[in-house]
Specification:
This protein is 3% helix and 47% strand. The protein has 363 residues and is mostly beta strands. The protein is built from 1 helix and 28 strands. The strands form 7 sheets. The chain has a 4-stranded antiparallel β-sheet, with no helix packed on it. It has a 4-stranded antiparallel β-sheet with strand order 2-3-4-5, with no helix packed on it. Strands 6-7-8-9 form a 4-stranded antiparallel β-sheet, with no helix packed on it. Belongs to the WD repeat ARPC1 family.
């Protein structure tokens, strides 16, 4: 694992380009910074500055090399690289509240945007008029949409919201794609159809993630729980309430292994092998070594100069992140066998973790 710091500002969201040599990061402001890796250092090469409100979501399409951003200014932009400069195109999302999250579909021909307007905007490009249009999914949503994830079939869309619900919708747009085949979540898929709805999530649903096959759906809620719905097994839901602080982000790293992280400042591994078989595996952080009792003369005088004391600062946490983790992203390997993933947090740091599968679980 490796840790990188991008300043003192909290990092609210991040996204990688296709070959993982560049990363788009928002330091909790209205600007997205794009960094390029040079050796062991990250150098800032671009700034995306069109938004007037705080950036709430960013996603980078690997094949088309387009970036989509959304913000509290109720706008979304699709950015295209032309002659070495990122050019924005405004999207007609038609919302009257802040945008909260955004996600490209697997085929990159559309993206979904959640907002505080109690709806999801599914946006696609209309070639005839050369602009990005949106269609709204509203059915059943009673509060802010906090998280989104696409099914591998490019049609189904999972959403977690502040009304304590987790849902799966159909985002099929007949103008741009062929009619989808049946899935374990349902066979009739007109646009906006609710194919799954779980009402007892226990808290705000901060993050959702489909498994690599799309057969299961995991989500994390503000009551410190993680849950999995199993499509082929009658959409049966399995809950696991942890003893940790609330988790904020969740991803699948294999078909059965899940990684989640949040206010405990470190990632945790969970395993799901079937209904009622969701278990905690292990903490995926390496505790920092304490240097208590071995302060050097240089450290002694540094503390005296900076803090007017000779005592060591023991307030530092033992985790790599020193504040809450806001988002997890896959860095290396397919979703069926992730080798590396990244996390960003409120401490302004980004950590790249190496994942090694472990099948031992404990409830």
């Amino acid at each position: 694992m490796s840790i990188y710091t991008f300043g003192l500002e909290p990092l609210s969201c991040h996204a990688w380009n296709k070959d993982r040599t560049q990363i788009a990061i928002s330091p909790n402001s209205n600007v997205v910074h794009i960094y390029q890796k040079s050796g062991k250092e990250w150098n800032k090469i671009h700034e995306l500055t069109e938004h007037s409100g705080r950036i709430t979501g960013v996603d980078w399409a690997p094949e088309t090399n387009r970036i989509v951003t959304c913000a509290s200014d109720r706008n979304a932009y699709v950015w295209t690289l032309k002659d070495g400069v990122w050019k924005p195109t405004l999207v007609l999302v038609r919302i009257n509240r802040a945008a909260t999250c955004v996600k490209w579909s697997p085929m990159e021909n559309k993206f979904a945007l959640g907002s505080g307007a109690k709806l999801i905007s599914v946006c696609y490009f209309e070639k005839e008029n050369d602009w990005w249009l949106s269609k709204h999914i509203k059915k059943g949503i009673c509060s802010t949409v906090l998280s989104l994830d696409w099914h591998p079939n490019n049609v189904l869309l999972a959403a977690g919201s502040a009304d304590l619900h987790c849902r799966v919708f159909s985002a099929y747009i007949k103008d741009i794609e062929e009619k989808p085949g049946p899935t374990p979540w349902g066979s009739k898929m007109p646009f906006g159809e609710v194919l799954f709805e779980h009402k007892e999530c226990g808290g705000w649903v901060h993050s959702v993630s489909f498994s690599p096959s799309g057969d299961t759906l995991a989500w994390v809620s503000h009551n410190s729980s993680i849950s999995v719905a199993d499509g082929p097994r009658g959409k049966q839901v399995t809950h696991l309430t942890t003893d940790n602080l609330p988790l904020m982000s969740v991803i699948y790293v294999t078909e059965n292994d899940i990684v989640a992280a949040g206010h405990d400042c470190c990632p945790y591994q969970f395993s799901y092998i079937g209904p009622e078989a969701l278990g905690f595996v292990k903490k995926l952080d390496v505790p920092k070594q304490s240097s208590k009792g071995s302060m050097s003369a240089m450290q002694h005088f540094r503390n005296l100069d900076k803090k007017a004391t000779t005592e060591e600062d023991h307030n530092e946490m033992e985790t790599l992140h020193q504040n809450s983790i806001t988002q997890l992203c896959i860095v290396e390997g397919p979703k069926t066998n992730v080798e590396k993933y990244s996390s960003v947090g409120l401490d302004g740091a980004m950590v790249v973790w190496t994942f090694k599968s472990c099948t031992t679980t404990s409830n």
